[in-house]
Specification:
The complex is a heterodimer of chains A (about 220) and B (about 130).
Chain A: H1 2-17, H2 19-36, H3 47-65, H4 83-89, H5 103-111, H6 125-137, H7 146-154, H8 167-173, E1 211-212, E2 216-217
Antiparallel strand pairs in A: 1-2
Helix pairs in contact in A: 1-2, 2-3, 5-6
Chain B: H1 2-13, H2 23-33, H3 41-49, E1 52-53, E2 60-61, H4 64-67, E3 75-76, E4 83-84, H5 99-114, H6 120-131
Antiparallel strand pairs in B: 1-2, 3-4
Helix pairs in contact in B: 2-6, 3-6
Classes of the chains: A mainly alpha (about 220), B mainly alpha (about 130).
């Protein structure tokens, strides 16, 4: 839905500046495609490089999509830059950053979209292929962000299909009482990161920015 | 006039995304070309409110499980609790303007709710009913 609203606002923008908007759209589009393939440094292991590219992407897109990367300096994981990914994988829940799981986990998830945790999240084949590539290239395997490294190194050889099942995640969340999430209708499950982590979309999961709905700010 | 400009701009600016007011008409004629007969909004409504039992979980499912009874107000995803904007085009004009989007959700929602894909006839009936909301 959000993306369709964005489409609407893009449309008005286009009305206002006429042809210029078409050129602008071309840039925005270009960006979206690039994210999945070459635009983000590919398999580069250089954290700074990736961080820079990522920020740059968001800045260029900012005019159309609203930059979400203001907190880049503090991010625990690279922000989501893929337009198609955000649209398709952000419609039922928060669009998880690719850096939260290794590529082997994403491959498993993307191969079973027809029965996706009891839901049907099937995609047309071309979108399925493009999103899988986007996830692999930006997965925790190739990221130097803090949370990506911690998740990766906590896994051993396992390939969980849930972020919430990775040992690092479990360890970080084991002190939160069940009444604050499972028995809290405003949260329901730990899978909905953005309901507690107020800067989750910016890739920041700092415990000082946690506000649990109905319970307020998290005080360790 | 305004609608025309909007439609035209949409078309140019978003060349590759089929998003325009005629999406429903186009889909209906496609379904017909594939053998569907005249469409019926009553039938669409009947299927919309009907309940279906899921063979695997025993759960009772319906289109209203997520979209809720009143199509002019927000729905809520049954599991994730994510808000679903109203389906009624009268309050949410972006609805049913993108053929690929409609077909994708028909596939998912029919499989999840009915346990199978919908036929072209059924999809046309649903669309005729939904478009009038």
């Amino acid at each position: 839905m959000k993306n369709r609203k964005i489409k609407l606002s893009m449309m008005f923008f286009a009305l206002a500046v006429g042809l210029a908007a078409i050129a602008g759209q071309a840039i925005a589009d270009d960006d979206g495609d690039d994210d999945g393939y070459k635009g983000r440094g590919g398999y580069s292991q250089n954290g700074d490089d990736r961080g820079y590219n990522n920020g740059d992407d968001d800045k260029r897109r900012g005019g159309f999509f609203g930059g979400e990367n203001r907190l880049r300096g503090k991010a625990d994981v690279a922000t989501v830059a893929g337009v198609l990914y955000k649209k398709e994988c952000g419609s039922c829940h928060f669009a998880y950053q690719p850096g939260l799981l290794p590529s082997r986990s994403w491959e498993k998830i993307m191969a079973g979209l027809e029965d996706h945790f009891g839901d049907n999240a099937e995609l047309p084949e071309e979108d399925q292929v493009e999103i899988t590539r986007y996830l692999i290239v930006n997965s925790a395997d190739y990221s130097n962000y803090k949370a990506s490294i911690k998740i990766s190194s906590s896994l051993g050889g396992s390939s969980p299909v849930r972020i919430t099942e990775t040992p690092y995640f479990v360890k970080e969340h084991q002190e939160i009482p069940v009444r604050m999430w499972k028995n809290n209708p405003k949260v329901k499950s730990l899978s909905y990161c953005d309901r507690c982590h107020t800067n989750a979309k910016a890739g920041s999961f700092n415990e000082h920015d946690v506000k649990i709905p109905g319970f307020g700010k998290w005080d360790d | 006039m305004k609608k025309m400009i909007i439609t035209a701009t949409f078309f140019i600016a978003l060349g590759q995304t089929l998003a325009y007011a005629g999406a429903v008409e186009d889909l209906l004629s496609r379904y017909k070309a594939k053998g569907a007969k005249n469409f019926s909004a009553e039938n669409g409504q009947a299927m919309w409110v009907a309940t279906y039992e899921d063979a695997k979980t025993g759960m009772t499912r319906s289109c209203e499980t997520c979209h809720k009874k009143n199509l002019k107000t927000k729905g809520e995803h049954q599991k994730t609790g994510e808000v679903i904007e109203p389906l009624a085009p009268s309050v949410n004009p972006v609805r049913f303007t993108d053929m690929k989007f409609i077909e994708k959700w028909f596939k998912r929602n029919c499989k999840w709710t009915l346990g199978r894909e919908c036929t072209n006839q059924e999809k046309g009936d649903f669309l005729l009913f939904l478009q009038k909301q």
